Amino acid sequence: MAVKKFEDLEFSDDYMFKKVMMDEEICKGVIERLLHVQVDHLDYPEVEKQLNPYYGTKGIRLDVYVKDSDRIFDLEIQSYKENALGERTRFYQSLLDTDSLMKGSTYDELKESYIVFICLENPFDNLKEEDLIPRYEFVSLCKEKPSIRLNDKSTKVIYNASRYKKEKDPVVRAFLKFVYENKSEDSFTKNIQNRVDDVKRAEINKEEYLNMNIHDYDVLRRGRDEGIAIGIERGKDESRLETAKKLLQMNVCTIEQIASATELSIEEVKALAEEAKSN
What we know:
By secondary structure, the chain is of the alpha/beta class. The protein has helices at 14-20, 24-35, 85-100, 170-181, 187-201, 203-210, 218-221, 225-233, 237-250, 255-262, 266-278, and strands at residues 46-47, 50-51, 60-61, 64-67, 71-78, 112-119, 135-138, 154-160.
């Protein structure tokens, strides 16, 4: 699957989601709708916040990371199937806590945290039809007595936008429909669409999208990004050639951009392009 053209990007696309959510009012509105909470203010949204707590350990890059007075919010757009969604939220939670608790602080200083995944499709395998609902909220409960909560201040909420018709709250339903079908039907989603259009009108955003680092492309993130990044880092000629071929197939970069990204010469990339044409 090729990377979308910049002109075809929608709010549900990774790049556009991050750009639009930099608008504080839109970000605040999304949080209030999806979590049914009131937000007094937001620290400026931090897009693609990187958490790398220790050398040699796996880090993460959050889509949108924001805070208000005593809460932390991480919002993620999930446009493709994630087979390890539960494990991913567990790992994200651990790094959020590590990042927010300063050395010497006590555990009761941990802020209330929300991790929200907005999925375009059903996020869970093997569910019965009656279990396919628009919203799943997870908190820590006692297995023997579910009425007893652990009160660890952490909540994970996963939305299935494809089931927006089952959502009872009209404002949430309108938002999920917009995410899933790209159709704005109320003032809030129309405001989001206007912001999407504003992003597209800025030539600098188009240049940024086309010049993104290889592992930032949505298609390469679908299981390829780590292998490609490692291959380029190690300078393996075979990996560079394969990466250049993939980018040529996607037809979203110039010869010069591919040469710069893969550290191949322009002549080498041109030769690969000619080879691809002949095949």
